Amino acid sequence: MEEGQKQEMKPLRTQTANEEEVSEGIGCCGWILVFFSFLFTLLTLPLSIWMCIKIVKEYERVVIFRLGRMVPGGAKGPGLYCILPCTTSFIRVDIRTISFDIPPQEVLTKDSVTVSVDGVVYYHVQNATLAVANITNADAATRLLAQTTLRNVLGTKNLAEILSDREEIAHNMQSTLDDATDAWGIKVERVEIKDVKLPLQLQRAMAAEAEATREARAKVIAAEGEMNASRALKEASMVIAESPSALQLRYLQTLNTIAAEKNSTIIFPLPIDLLQAFTGSRK
């Protein structure tokens, strides 16, 4: 069995090696064209040097093609590169972080509520060779994929989950986009949900529900305050009943409060001792 597996693996290896040789070689005619292009560059050297020398910036990478075939070694840059006119071409790729807005998407949630949601996506080109060779327009494809991913992710959520779990939704979108764009050489760094717009009738219903909840909570708080106040008054009355002089001090404090308010009429309470004398005589 092992010898059979080795025999089956040998042709596969030779086949892949031949494919690499074919992909890297440009053939005899290709080398002839390259030679004539080099000769033409030498003949027109003072002028052709401006066509041959290319400067690649720090945030750029270039993918070079010679007679339609990609030059081995992948993307180049940054630095100074010399290319041959007519036979060599190159494509610049910006590897800086790019951000774009997801247009508002009308989404039907899991509980049959229509909402409008928009967001923002941050990504950068991780592999310039894949971004050029595997897809026509990586930026446009990423934008379209972000819109469909937003609708698909929000379609599995309830309205309450969309309003409360924005971070989880953004994380799910980021992982989904990152997996889908991996073959394009793109790395999705961050996804954010910007705004969730609800229908006007639903906004009014939610506002009425929130107002009713706040009113009920306020009534409960007021009832608890009255209950605590009544308990405090009961304890105060018990203290005053134990000490008659405390009632007289309370009278004097009330008199001081009335006088501080600059009222035209001031009421002087009768002393408690005088009242007790009258009650004693009656008895």
UniProtKB/TrEMBL annotation:
It is found in: Membrane. GO terms for cellular component: plasma membrane. The chain crosses the membrane at residues 31-53. Keywords: Membrane, Transmembrane, Transmembrane helix. Residues 51-210 form the Band domain. Its main location: membrane. InterPro entries: Band-7_stomatin-like, Band_7, Band_7/SPFH_dom_sf, Band_7/stomatin-like_CS, Stomatin_HflK_fam. SMART domains: PHB. The keyword Transmembrane applies. Pfam families: Band_7. Belongs to the band 7/mec-2 family. This is Stomatin.
